[in-house]
Amino acid sequence: MKSIIKMFGGFFVLISLFSCEKDSLGPEGSDLLVANSRGQNFNNGMINSYSNEVVLQWNELLSQYLDQQLPQPFEVKIYAMVTLAMHDGLNNVVPKYETYALDNSGVDFSGITKKNIHSIADAAVSQAARDMIVQIYPAAATAAEAQLNTILSAIEDSELKDRGIEIGKNAAAAMLAARSGDISFGFSSYTGGSDPGDYQATYPPYVFPNPPIWPANAVFGANLGDLNPFGILSSDQFLDEAPHAVSSDEYLAEYNEVKELGCNNCPLRTPDQTQISIFWRETSSSAMNRLARMLVQDRKLDGWESARLIGLIQMSVMDSYIASFEEKFQYAFWRPITAIRNGDSDGNDLTLGDPGWTPSTPSPTPPNPSFPSTTAYSGGAVAEILKAFFHSDVANIDFTSPYYVAGVERHFDTFSDLATESSSFGIYAGYDFRQDGEVGERHGRELGKYIFENNLREIKKIL
Description:
This protein is mainly alpha-helical. The chain has helices at 32-37, 53-66, 72-90, 117-136, 141-153, 159-178, 249-261, 271-279, 284-298, 303-331, 336-341, 374-390, 415-429, 434-454; strands spanning 187-189, 218-220, 394-400, 409-414. Strand 3 (394-400) and strand 4 form a beta hairpin.
């Protein structure tokens, strides 16, 4: 799926070429290898002149209509497909980065200059986003159609505008084709084991903000690990550690920790821990998307950089879901709500049970096994993406959420701090044991590192 530049031996000769329009990228060129053989670095001021405005407009529209509206894996997959199609659209205008689905090795970028780059690029991004949203998220189709018309009407009619529209259509079509074989996933009945430590789908039904309903004795995403990943090799690529045995000292310590800090109105949980337990309930794709938009603006990224960063983040979040769910159902380890209510019959004489134990509000335990934490997995992955992208772990950000604790700011000195806090959330919410978060964060960091090093990479000039 990804564009690969092949060298066939010999040496490319650097040729000095001139044109009457000096800011034109590839005045005669139509081929990526030719452009690179001229020694052109695409960070030449022209691509940098393309602002992030339209990329962010589509990102914000998607956020407005999608966030917190669906079970999390559905939301994450939509984000990944739309944002990657936008990235592919831009990189088929001018190929600065490798693409996901639409090959850009033979792109004709003749005639594109600082003066007209917005015409073709805005059209490509907008058409790609609109076509994806209409196809995979009809709830936002009317808004997407209106935004497309507004953006295109502001672009003067030209051959470049028409090329941009065609590129956008092709980017969306390539994405849809690339994911056409994806399996479906959702709720399914679940009959697990009954031994201590076995996941049991016996907690109360839950209604999402919108349908579907969580049926009784069901799980969500039991086959999600079978979904073809977006950027990693396989869903079990990072699987290397099992949950603690229920009879172990490590399990006893983690059992008591979540029992004391994750219950509803726990007296030992600090106000800050309570805030953490609520702040991170937001869906990972929603939270990380908002974080990406904030960083795009604060660090003044151009449109190409913005589309790439957002695409990498959503790819890593989606693959975090795929990988973590593979691991969850590989081990099928019980949630704290089941463990603590059955603590007197788990074979461990030191675990004191509480049949009435209830996890922290405002939302109940997710309908899938605990190990590892998906929130921790995606938090670790995004932290690694951001560290690599900005060549530094320094964040110095104040992060807010409009959900659950609207207006509350969480400050993070580093991206690693953000990942570590998100991995502890499940303890204070009563969802996870500490090992769930620690392993999830570690595996997520490995996933994020792999994705950054192997996807949407900058196309290097050939010397």
